[in-house]
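FW: tagging you since you asked about this chain on Friday. Here's the raw sequence from the shared folder, copied in full. Didn't touch anything.
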Amino acid sequence: MPETLVKLSNVAKSYYRDSLEIPVLTDIDLEISTGEFLALMGPSGSGKTTLLNLLAGIDRPSSGEVIVAGENIAKLNEGALAKWRSRHIGLVFQFYNLIPVLTAYENVELPLLLTNLSKRERQQHVESALSIVGLGDRMDHYPRQLSGGQEQRVAIARAIVSDPTLILADEPTGDLDKHSAEEIMTLLSRLNSEYKKTIIVVTHDPRAAEKAHVIRQLDKGELN
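HL: got it, structure written out here
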């Protein structure tokens, strides 16, 4: 992997409502090294989630370059982008996004169903991921049988099961109590320090941001 894992140059993003242009991000320059843990803070509506979506290839910039893992992802077609995302990106959301009718094991296995791994190989990956997040004994539990903190740990296991290059977490502690939030941020910090994962966390919570190496502020679409 390149030492500079993420490089955004002059990135802008606008949305359109009828003929009205709504600028969300303006002239963003950002470099993130491999192995970095960055917290992105800012008020609601400042463009934090939009920036995360650009890094994940979920959205495309209106202008500028988004280079992640050596690839200018804004130039990839949808098929190539989906393959790139499955190889490089692990996503963690505020509200877990677990499927209620699937067990913890089955939820974590989902991203691997798009790969060429055998059933046995998938099992090894899933069991390893759930063990890393401390839920090796909860594999057969459904989301309704887990606490909020445990659900988020399942979601993190799902994000890391394919060994992604970059973990993107959007308000991962936003729906949790103080104790569970601390556990989740400690887990992300461990993934960074022990497993050398590059992590970008969007958060409102200064205590959550304290775990990061670098804190950047986004305000009215501008990065400080």
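FW: DSSP finds seven helices and ten strands in the chain.
HL: agreed, and The first helix runs from residue 48 to 55.
FW: great, closing this out.
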